[in-house]
Amino acid sequence: MTTPSSGGGATTSATRRPYRRDIDGLRGLAIALVVVFHVFVGRVSSGVDVFLLVGGVFFFGPQIRNALNPTGQTLIQSVVRLLRRLYPALLVVVTVTLAAGFVVYARARWAQTAEDAAASLTYRQNLHLADQGQDYAAVGRDVSLYQHIWSMSAQLQIYLGSLLVIVVLAWLLKKLPVRFPALSLHWLLVLATAASFAYAVHLHGTDQGWNYYSPLSRFWEIGLGGLLGIWLVHKETPTRLAWARWPAGVVGVALIIGTGFFLDGADQFPGPWTLVPLAGATLVVLAGNPVVDGRGASGVSALLNTAPFQTLGRISYSLYLWHWPLLALATFHFSDVLGNRSTGVQGITATLGTKKGLVIGTAVILISLVLAWATEKYIETPLRQTRKPARAWLPSRTAVKDAVGHRAAVAVAVVAVVATVGVLAAGPVIENRDDARLVAQDDENLDPAQYPGPRAFLEDAPVPGDVEVRPDPTNEEHMLPQTQPDGCYARFE
To answer: Quick check: is 75 in a domain?
Structure first.
């Protein structure tokens, strides 16, 4: 998970606000919870919900100010900036893990895996899972490689819809004879957040499966973060209340971490119980607010400013992308049973056993950290937009000429297009080939002389040795019950 921009201010002032490194550290805590709970606990932590809140902190304030600024970025420029931040790393992870899935999984599973990959690249994974009736599940042999992309899909849907609404409302406000300040848009955000929360509460009691994935019911988490960023993030703490920062931070972290152990997020979020971890995250953010007398960070805020949490916060987006498909592939590859081997927690140890699960799960985390660091350094950072271009609805001739003349940029664009087309086309191509193979291998059209079937045993009918085996035995190893490979049942050659 990630945030679209950084440094959202609390007012319409053009003054640059000090960057909140402790919020980066909070993002690091959130991704640590997501990974650990996915790998070893098998339950939904509050990490994703904290991500959504933090995303709102850095999104709504800057976008509202930009829309009201006559020289601000256009809608197209804002979308391009957002996609440059998010899409390259997603494309790399999906392409690599899809190829790995073709190696690890049986052919029968390729088409579905490719379909999931395409849903991820088009940011509709949440709608895709909801349409298929798939609840958010713990890791196992049959879970989707890209189940976790639902949150990024919902997040981007909310961002794009909000950008469009903000731009339209800002334009209307400029056309009115009476000038309205940014506060008018802030109060509209309050109304939208409240409406989304009410909808989430209602849907929780009627259709929790759709409630979990819906961008309309998830909006309030990002909207709440937006209000926090606009009104409270940079508000100075009075000196007389500075003592409260330490206990507020501790209580906040306790609420965030405890949520995953005492609440089942898949069954409860984004309903009213989501207020528990979001209240915790709000307390942590407020505990890091500057004090009037200028004293530095303390308690939890000082801890979040340390190198481990800062590093995790910096690579949190790439780490979120990598850890789940690696976990799903490792669980499938190293498991030798179809069911769970233990009760209680539903992480990787439930499928692989405690000892083997701990070893493989730890390896998955370490590999994910390395890949996330490399992706952030060599993909995210170089391709991120570092400066805002002049306001324009379409690129100027000079900008296009400069881009075309930059060989590295052209090469990156070509690779991205080819990889995108390849992933999007993989599902339909595989499905068409599977259908063709099924038609060609239709058992009803087999020549009895070439394929005697049971007659070979009952009537000693001759079996030609130079014909292709039908039905296709490609997936036989993954479909036979475990009583066969262990020698309890002898397969005839």
So the answer is: yes
- Evaluate whether residue 437 is within a structural domain: no
The total of structural domains in the chain comes to: 1
Lowest mean pLDDT among 32-36, 355-359, 365-369: 355-359
Q: Is residue 229 part of a domain?
A: yes
Whole-prediction pTM value?
0.85
What single-letter amino acid sits at 158? Answer: I
**Phi, psi for residue 271 in degrees, rounded to 5:** -70, -165
- Minimum mean pLDDT range among 11-20, 230-239, 357-366: 11-20
pLDDT at 239 over 70: yes
Q: Look up residue 129 and give its two tokens.
A: 């899972």
Neighbour-count burial of 486, counting CB atoms closer than 10 A to its CB (0-12 exposed, 13-18 middle, 19+ buried): exposed
Any domain includes 313:
yes
**Residues contacting residue 205 through CB under 8 Å, at least 6 positions apart:** none
Query: What is the per-residue pLDDT across 316-337, written as a single tens digit (0 to 9) for each?
Result: 999 999 999 999 999 999 987 5
Range of the domain at 310: 21-394
pLDDT tens-digit map of 45-94: 899 999 999 999 999 999 999 988 888 889 998 999 999 999 999 999 99
